[in-house]
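User: I'm putting together notes for a lab meeting next week and I want to include a structural view of one of the chains we've been expressing. I don't have a solved structure, so I'd like a prediction I can at least talk through. The sequence is below, exactly as it appears in our construct file.
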Amino acid sequence: MRHLAVLGLLGCSGSSDFVATEIIIPEGAPAPEDEQVQDVLLQTAAAAVDVVWLVESEEDSELPLSIQAAAPLFFDQLIEAEVDFRVGLSVEGSGLLWVDSSSDKPAGLVGDYLLAPVAPETPAPHPLDATNDALKAAVSSREALGRSSVPLHVLVISDLDDPKRTPNVQVEELTTWVSGLLPPEDLSLSGITGPGVAASFDSLRAVIDGSWSEVATADWSAELLEVSAEAAGLQTEFFLSALPERGTLRVSVQTPTDDGTLEVLDLDELDYAYDNQRNTIVLSSAPSAGSSVVVNYVRAGSLGE
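Assistant: Thanks for the context. Below is the predicted structure for the 305-residue chain, given as structure tokens.
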């Protein structure tokens, strides 16, 4: 129940008195128009990005096939966002294969490279050595193309057991060098690995943001879509302009179509969460570039007790 106090001024033979009148507003009555809030939050994408994939797998592993099957989703999201991208792929420590936004069927090129036979006499390097070698090659290529300031995302994929051998590279030196390549917001390191490989990257993970997941239980479509969204600069978290009254949030995603209309998708509470510490809406997946996240709600305090 809401209570609204109204002050009235009564005048009589030169004297004035204030009289308070209480109006009771039933529960469920709409809030005043100026307390209804609509935030329209535009999804934007990065202008350009470089991504380096490092893949190492056990002999006769199904890992390359799993990546190949999900790779089109990764590239489709970058292409749809109209990002100027370059993706460099290293398999078992091989040299980088580069595909970019001008390549014809980049997912197919990456899939073919993943399944190409590797010389059996060539032992796979320690994951940290493979990372060091691939990033040195990537930095050289970026400098030659004038892309040194473009955001860089590194993805390590491996189903190897704990790499017990010692890496040739000094971990502290590698960490200092990699973390200094770009500002923190333009550099990420993610992995889909077993716990042993993940542990070997602990020093780097402590200073470089990114997501890590277990390779044995990986949902490859979801994992690569998440990395692709991060690389494309697509957001899943959107800040609200005011504090919402509990239970009044209504969220939808509006996406322009080719015929000039808007496709509207109303989200239910399984598709998003409200973070009351940051006053943000966090979506379960990133909307496409150019979409708008529309959040309607009543400003906190408007409905009273």
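A couple of points you could mention at the meeting. The first helix runs from residue 63 to 80. Residues 1-25 have pLDDT under 50 and may be disordered.

User: Perfect, that's what I needed.
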